[in-house]
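$ run holo --ligand "calcium ion" --emit tokens
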Amino acid sequence: MWFRPIFQSDAQRRDDGNRPVSGLLLVQHRPRYEGLLERTNARKGHRPKSSLIAFALLLISLIFFIKFAHAEASPATFAECADRLLAEATTRGVSSLVIDSVKPLLREDTRIVSLDRSQPEFMQTFAGYFPVRVNNQRIDRGRELLREHQSLLQRIQRETGVPPQYLLAFWGLETDFGRVLGSHIVPVALANLACDSRRADFFREEFIKSLRILDRGDITVDRMLGSWAGAMGNMQFMPSAYLDHATDGDKDGKRDLWNSTTDALVSAGYFLSALGWTTGQRWGREVLLPSNFDYLQTDKIEPLSAWANMGVRDTAGRPLKQTDTPARIIVPSGHQGPAFIAYPNFDVIMKWNRSEYYAISVGRLADQIAGGGKLVRPIPDIPERLPLESIRTLQENLALLGFEVGPIDGLAGPATRRAIAAWQHARGWIPDGFTHPETLSALGDAPVPSSTTP
Ligand SMILES: [Ca+2]
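-- output --
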């Protein structure tokens, strides 16, 4: 919580700055306020009847207003909403047997909605994200499981084109190889989210789909456990992904992604295949960039040969292949950290989970499970978390200076990265678009005067 004191002192400074204005407003209002008090005192004891009636009417309308506003503000109760969800499920063909088994379990759980609504205070950096997910313990366990499930994994590769190490990497990242499956009853979690206004439509569909899964007899509701957001089983499939891609790999008649490792791994293979996995291609790899590399080119998709011609090499120092594979360069910790080249399968991983950090972690964990070594360029010693308030200030400042930052949301997404890179470039800094400490102290601490526009 190291950012709190800084944030509070900033807010304090703003309050101090406003004080003369507030004081001025108070001075302007005081005579009128005092005048009203004087008049009321003067008329005490002989208030005209009409003003008494007016007062009573005002009071009554105020009470009605409060009551009405309250009724307007409070949505239907959870029980009413749950009944509506079940009625819709019945209309859409879910059996009464499943409805009856789910209905007594549907209770309001305010923790679930507050988890969905809780706003993060920090943005995790790659330095904070990566080592927690790709570490020796996970690599070792992955290698053990690679040996243990060798023939199954080879069979899945033949059927779906997805190599063993990737299936294990997803499994490792999603549930630590089945160790943490989640403890929420999925239809209950989804009903709570569907009865909240934030993403009601999405979660209503997932709720009804979770009941369809129950209707197929793959699992009973008490064993249908998952995350608070409704992701289920070893591979954390949402019900929609389950209905479309879950596969009965062990041919026991049930598609059980919770208890059958075979079903879980086979299903992940078919899911990745459906997302567009390119057989015979890697996710990408760590690369070495030449010292004169133009960082404004990152995020552009170019043939591998174009990157090779710009001097990008593999970690052994060899030039990249002269092929037309589309690829882009990613530097998640800036120019001082490791650089990666990402191929089309990287985007397939991002269809599973829209996060570059996640996709790099899946790729790297897969490589190391398959025997690859550590990163050649280590992640620099930079903060593991950044306060969202700083990023927001940085975005506001970039917008003030005329750079296109996209939405001012405290999250340094691609548009913000490009804006940072353009700002860095205008200052003669290496334009890697990264929130370096120097960049943050120049843009993220306080509003900048717009006269410093480059
Ligand atoms: Ca099965």
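-- notes --
The CA atoms of residues 33 and 126 lie 57 Å apart.
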